[in-house]
## 1
Amino acid sequence: MFVIAKREFINLFKGIKSIITVLFLLIVSYYSAKFSEVISIGIELTASEAEGIHTVGILTLILLLGYLFVASLSHNTVNREMEERTIRFLITRTSRQSIILGKFFGICLFWFVTLIISFLLISIFSQKVDLFIFLQTMSLLIYQIALIILLSVIILKPSLTMFLGIIVGLSFPAVGIWLAFTSNTWVSWIKFITPYYYLFNEDYTFVMNVILAVIMLAIANQIFKRREC
Amino acid sequence: MNVIETKQLSKSYGSAQIIKAIDLSVKEGELFGFLGRNGAGKSTFINMLTGIIYPSSGTYSLLGVKGPNDQVKKRMGVMPDYSTLYSSLTAMEHLKFLSALSGNSASKVRCKEVLNLVGLQNHGGKKVGKFSFGMKKKLGIAQAIIHDPKIIFLDEPTSGLDPESAITIQKLIQNLQKNGKTIFMTSHNLHEVEKICTQIAIMKDGQIIKIGTMDELRAFYRSKITVKIKHSPIPKAEQLTLYEWLESAGSDLTKEVNSLTITVDDEKKIAEMIRAFNQCKVDIFRVEVEEPSLEDIFLDE
Ligand SMILES: Nc1ncnc2c1ncn2[C@@H]1O[C@H](COP(=O)(O)OP(=O)(O)O)[C@@H](O)[C@H]1O
Ligand SMILES: [Mg+2]
């Protein structure tokens, strides 16, 4: 599992796409933090809002485009290996579960590191790292990574997961946030499986996202176990 | 101990039964050749053993453990058919990554040693995307042995290689066997299997039609030993009796001047024939015996 995780992690950092994504995130974090104080002058803020002002930039970005980022880098993490049959070198050496988990942890580590660097950059201005917001954001990413792995296992065509990644990535936040607040009982139950619903409270309900991720990984594992490669 | 054992192992795709209830055992230390034409079902069979695909019915065990089993994988080396490697990794990176995945991380020295064995010593740092077909195949074999597995599955290890490389690989496979590995390889090349394998199964349409050592297979098919005899002129008086005797002893008798060709079904007949010639006071200058090659057997079936 750790070997796969390491490989996945290194792979992500080697790609040009990931470097651009990370740089973009870092630049947004840096400048939004830098200018947040300037911008917020003249706006009435509550104490907690004022406290979180520095992280607004990166939060907005990950809330709105997080799935798109994760998907663009990792949508084909499993199905590409199925298509190119490199997966055969993995499944003949280790359990299928450790392949799924290895990929999951590898991708998580990549985003964990990226997010840490972003938050450290922000702390230059805010003079502190907001651990709670960091964990909330990470829980969102963990949910999204698990979802992407699940889709990559279910859907065999990388071009399809790419397409789906863009569609879902663009609509997910809007739909998710709408679901969280809608009173339409026919659809509002769906909010319980979207990650946003668990981010609005300032408590540890965000842990639900990690639980949902575990469930998605378990499903992915069961499907992958039955797959012939 | 049987390193590989299958019981009624079968595989169907829809209504097509590709592998038909195969019972097979392979002993430790064997270099087992699975021979069959394209489409015979060789890859389907080997892929079931290596856990790439699953049997429709029947069971198998590897190293005494019922499969599929994740623990056994660590002691198994596999070169599957038609598998591309990672084009963005170098040969060296492949060996490091894959050996670590098998739980037996290879040192740089070990990687170089194995690259040397397959003839890729000068290409360790090259990205596999730039490799030729033959080089990829060699790396495919290298990755199958890098972690020093007990049992090695090779699906057509030499197909598509130039003759020189093919010989290098065949020698390598033989050496692996000498070092105590059990090797299960498939091939559609008779001469290769004939040359290196200690046990051979001939597969056709998803069934094993014959199994044994090369000698056993030959013995079974020995009904077609062609004997060519060069002899001194046969005295007129003896000609009729000798030819009559020969015709009863064998078949396809062709007579030429002071030589003849005949097909017999048993090696012992050759000695009897020589005695018959002697009794007729005919000297024998030369006896050429042509045993059937596996190719004849193979094509016959
Ligand atoms: N996934 C599959 N679906 C349907 N038929 C298959 C599949 N894989 C192999 N076959 C069929 O099984 C037969 C045996 O194939 P294979 O095992 O690859 O033969 P070999 O390796 O001996 O050349 C072929 O007729 C092939 O078309
Ligand atoms: Mg084949």
Note: Residues 2-225 of chain A form one domain.
## 2
Amino acid sequence: MKIAEHLEFSTFNFQSSMETIGTQVRLPFKRALAIAVSGIRIRLGRSLVTVSGVVLGIAFLMSNLTGQIVKTALSEEREQSQRVDMMMSLVNAEVGSLEDRTVAVAAFGRVTATDLAFVGRVNSSGPALFRAHGLDRSGLTAVSLQELGKDADLVFVMGDAASASISLQELTAGMASPLVLDTQADREYTGEVGDGIRREPFFGKQAEDMKEEAEVAARTERFRVTWILVISLLVTVVTVANALLMSVTERFREIGTMKCLGALSKFIRRLFLIESALIGMAGSVCGALVGAALTMVIYGAMYGFGKVLLSIHYGQLLLAAVVAVVCGSILSMAAAVYPARVASRMVPADALRSTV
Amino acid sequence: MAREIIARATDVTRRYRLGAEEVWALNGVSMDIYEGEYLSIMGPSGSGKSTFFNMIGALDVPTSGTIEFMGADLFSLPEDKQAWIRCNQIGYIFQTFNLIMVMSALENVTLPMILRDEPQEQADARGKEILEMVGLGHRVHHLPDQLSGGQRQRVAIARSLANSPRVILADEPTGNLDSKIGQEIIDLLKKLQVEQGVTIITATHDSKMLEISDRIAWIRDGKLERIENREDVEIKSGSMH
Ligand SMILES: Nc1ncnc2c1ncn2[C@@H]1O[C@H](COP(=O)(O)OP(=O)(O)OP(=O)(O)O)[C@@H](O)[C@H]1O
Ligand SMILES: [Mg+2]
């Protein structure tokens, strides 16, 4: 066919009357977004490779964060069961087995999870009667403070209140050998300590020593954890930056072509910024999911799924996911800024010649 | 009719540095280019034709000298004015096509329209129309590497026409094509010049191109050797008989 004959010049506007040099329009953000999205779409294969670079980096970060959360939860749970063990062994040393005994518990203020776990353990060791005041749990018989001690072999006192609203005499009224085990050694009771009433703290000197030891261990653990997170963040930075850097530099030629056709440097930077933000977000969300899921499966297989799923703090996990996604998105954008800036500032002829 | 100057090169040089070695691709070229003329630039390979094109087309900065375009010093214009010129006033047809390989023929052709913020639907409709005119109506969604060399060249031509430029810079537009398609492209460029007053600047080795040019500029080793009017060439070749 003859091209020249088919051209309908009437639809063109070659004899533009414009005699002054105009200013190139700045494309609105919506337009840039649409172009960036279509850019990702037409390069879907390559975009997925870039995304998977981000996924890899963020999954690594997220799996370390999740690992720490799971480990902390598991060690908290282990510590709690150790403390309950200690409390039970004190109980057993004082009164022997709790089977068919009458025990009572009074709570002042808020009780800790360890206290509740202890109450549960006492309840399951077969007492004939388990009275409680200020603590509403199944298997416990709620009574008034004054009735708590009647015929009881043992009274537990727990909760974070600094003082109890009863005297020890009243609390132990009706007990054959009055014995009070308190989770706080220095809790104040009203009135005098009566004769023949024994009051023991659950955790004495030995427990304080243990606590100190645990704190030292926790400090070294915190250092180790920080170190691992810093390293994993660095690995993430390198992986994500590399993925984005590659995706921009291999397009220098294309950038040159766009500039020949009238693209402004600012528009090109914006295009890459939007693209890297989208890729960063998509990659980070996937990475966070993959990282968290994989880590939980591994810990679940090692320690039991029920235990892992029940003990972790989901708030922390969510926070870690948010941190990882924000990190991934910002990193991706930051990694694209530099090459996009270099590319956008290139003289078009140089950009066209590049063969990266 | 007074001849308006659309572009003027004054003492343009361009030096490339390759390590310690210096290459003067252009070595003091001065030339006026008139609105509406058909100018062919001739010269052996490596003489600096593409380098000169890049300067006129605002794609590369001279080492020294100035380029005026529409009366303004091109390289002291702010970036958004240069971009406006590239987008609205010049249509480029590159020696190596420079199509975006991941974009379809249509997407390549609509790009100049989109860069001046024409609505997508309008650009698409117009892009299809132009592609049809160059005989690629049935290939609009093909990627450049699914097209033949001649078809790619036609996509490049369609793209260069998209914004109705006043100047078309064509670097060896017939270089890699068979003579039939080459002739079609020459006819097209000539028709654009004669009927629409579009300024055509081509670099070429093609003698057919010389026959239809108004002026021929000879470049050798980065220097402008001479400029000839076609009439003079014909007279000369006529006198040789
Ligand atoms: N980017 C570059 N770096 C170094 N030298 C270059 C560069 N581009 C061009 N040159 C040199 O500048 C000179 C002119 O090159 P140019 O591309 O302008 O030639 P040309 O006349 O277009 O040749 P052809 O007909 O083969 O396309 C050549 O000697 C070339 O080697
Ligand atoms: Mg060349």
Note: Chain A is about 65% helix and 10% strand.
